[in-house]
């Protein structure tokens, strides 16, 4: 699914991807070298 994930972020309208399961969630904000850059909304960021 990595090529599809990378393609999603080529669109200027893309703001990210929200996903997860009960008790855990992630917000994927971009990709670099086929690795996802994500935030955990449950952790405090400085």
From TrEMBL:
It is an enzyme of class 3 (hydrolase). It comes from Nymphaea colorata. InterPro entries: Papain-like_cys_pep_sf (IPR038765), Peptidase_C54 (IPR005078), Peptidase_C54_cat (IPR046792). It is found in: Cytoplasm. Residues 1-46 form the Peptidase C54 catalytic domain. Interacts with ATG8. It catalyses: [protein]-C-terminal L-amino acid-glycyl-phosphatidylethanolamide + H2O = [protein]-C-terminal L-amino acid-glycine + a 1,2-diacyl-sn-glycero-3-phosphoethanolamine. This is Cysteine protease. It holds the Pfam family Peptidase_C54. Keywords: Autophagy, Cytoplasm, Hydrolase, Protease, Protein transport, Thiol protease, Transport. GO terms for cellular component: cytoplasm. Its EC number is 3.4.22.-. Belongs to the peptidase C54 family. GO terms for molecular function: cysteine-type endopeptidase activity; protein-phosphatidylethanolamide deconjugating activity. Cysteine protease that plays a key role in autophagy by mediating both proteolytic activation and delipidation of ATG8 family proteins. The protease activity is required for proteolytic activation of ATG8 family proteins: cleaves the C-terminal amino acid of ATG8 proteins to reveal a C-terminal glycine. Exposure of the glycine at the C-terminus is essential for ATG8 proteins conjugation to phosphatidylethanolamine (PE) and insertion to membranes, which is necessary for autophagy. In addition to the protease activity, also mediates delipidation of PE-conjugated ATG8 proteins. One of its GO terms (biological process) is piecemeal microautophagy of the nucleus. PANTHER family: CYSTEINE PROTEASE (PTHR22624:SF49), CYSTEINE PROTEASE ATG4 (PTHR22624).
């Amino acid at each position: 699914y990595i090529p599809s994930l990378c393609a999603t972020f080529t669109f200027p309208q893309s703001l990210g991807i929200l996903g997860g399961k009960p008790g855990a969630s992630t917000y994927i904000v971009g990709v670099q070298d086929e690795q996802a850059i994500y935030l955990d909304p449950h952790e405090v960021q400085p």
